[in-house]
Structures are given as C-alpha cells and as structure tokens.
Amino acid sequence: MGCEEFEIQLADYIDGGTASAEFLSHLESCAACASLTEDAQSAVAFMEIAADVEPPPALVGKILHATNSGWEFKLRAKGIRGWINRLFAPVLKPRFVMGAMLTMMSITMLSRCAGGPKNTLTAADLDPVRLWSSLDYKTNRLWDQTMKSYESMRLVYEIRTQLNEWKQQQSDADDAAADARANSRKLEPAKVEDKQEKK
C-alpha cells in the first residue's frame, strides 16, 4: 500500500472503522504516515473536548453590513456596469427577492388549490423563441383589446353627447313652442277686446 492510499483510508481508521492488514502494516513501516496518524488522532481528540462556542450576537449584523457594503461599492462603479447595478439595486435586495419568491410560491399554491391547469411544464415550454412569441402575441392581443375598448368608449361618449344635444334642442324647441302658445293666448283676448271696443 502506498502513502496516498493510506491517507484515503486514514479517516475511516480514526473514526473507528476496521483497518485492513495492508493499512496496519504500512502504518508500522512508514514513519511519515505514523506521524500523520498521531497528529490526526490528537486533533480529533482536541475537537472532542473543545466546547461549542456561541457566535457573538453582533456577528450576523457585521456580516450583513460587510456584504451590503460590498454591494454599495459595486453600485459606485462607473460606466455601464455601475449603471446596470444601480438600475437593478432595489430588485436585487435579499428581502425583495425573498418576498417575490414567497409571492410566486403562494400564487402557485393558490392556483393549484383553485384547480388551475393540470398540464405539466416541459422543456419545449421553456424555449426562448416560443416564450418570446407567446409574450409578443399576448402583448399585441392586450394592446388590440385596449384600443378597441378605448374606441368603443369614445364612440359611446360621442353618441351620448349627440343624444344630449338632441334632447337639449328638443327641450329648447318645446320651450319655444310653449312660449309661443302662451303669447298667442295673451294676444287673442286683446284682439277680442279691440273688436268689442270698435263696435
């Protein structure tokens, strides 16, 4: 057995596993491997007696501050890379990403519970050309529906405006006719009185 094979089997031997006869004979014959075995056994014994250390409470805050300051350093970069980093900075915050992932998971669970489509996602569904054409089709369809609804609302508004104008003209004509009738009734008694005076 060579030293390399010995080192491979050394961890099993220290953990209390069974050692082969070749391993034990190499351990007795090779001084370097015997020294390595003693060092490894003493290191394992020390780790077993060492107490578990609690991390200080401020450690997490310091780690987050250090990683965030690294990100802020990237935001100060110049050129296109800095501009792109500053553009996506709000979106790439861990809280935002976690919130977005939880929202997607909630929507997925709700759609499954509500009896959404049962078809499974295939590799063909993730084809970029297919996704882009589907997105383009849906965008054009949404735009067409929006324009049709806008034109329909505009047509309805024009029709209502025209109807209101006609109603206003009709009411003005009715008011004028009522005034004309009232004036004609006032004139008729006056004519009758004039005729009586002449007689």
Tell me what you see in this structure:
This protein is mainly alpha-helical and 199 residues long. The protein folds into three domains: 3-49, no CATH class; 58-117, no CATH class; 127-199. Helices cover 80% and strands 0% of the residues. It has seven helices and no strands. Helix 1 packs parallel to helix 3 (31-49) and helix 2 crosses helix 3. The longest helix is centred in the C-terminal third of the chain and has 71 residues, at 128-198. The chain is rod-shaped, with a radius of gyration of 46 Å. The mean pLDDT is 79.
How many domains, as an integer? 3
The percent range for strand residues is under 5%
Sketch the major β-sheet: none
Please, what is the average pLDDT? 79
Helix content: over 70%
The CA-CA distance between the termini, in Å, is: 157 Å
Taken in chain order, the helices and strands follow as HHHHHHH
Q: What are the low-pLDDT stretches, counting only 5+ consecutive residues below 50? A: none
Shape from CA axes? rod-shaped
Number of helices: 7
Q: Using only CA atoms, what is the Rg?
A: 46 Å
Number of strands: 0
Structural class: mainly alpha
